[in-house]
Automatic annotation (TrEMBL):
This is Integral membrane protein. It comes from Nocardioides zhouii. Keywords: Membrane, Transmembrane, Transmembrane helix. The chain crosses the membrane at residues 6-25, 37-55, 67-83, 95-115.
Amino acid sequence: METLRLVLLFVHILGYAALLGGLLVQVRSETKAVNPLMRDGIGTAFLAGLLLVGVLESLGSPDHAKIGVKFAVGLVILVLVMVNMRKPSIPQGLYVGLLVLTIANIAVAVFWSPVHA
């Protein structure tokens, strides 16, 4: 079960890396758009995250507050990406919002660690 956890965590991280890469590749572009890398990245990260929670539940008691925050932010990113997938461009504010939410979700994963007594 630990191996499955590590594989899902790796896929989850790769998904967020793809999403962030899809966003960062457009930093210097005048027009911003949702690209397939962003779509596939958030889809992979979201699905792997859901599966990862299932594995974590079987291994013990995960931090439900952290999972809830990551789920909510990930769901918002997923919906925003999917709704704007077919549009030729997105507003600068939406682009910045997606970038901030993505970085925030990564920060939650890294800095919200379990309390060790």
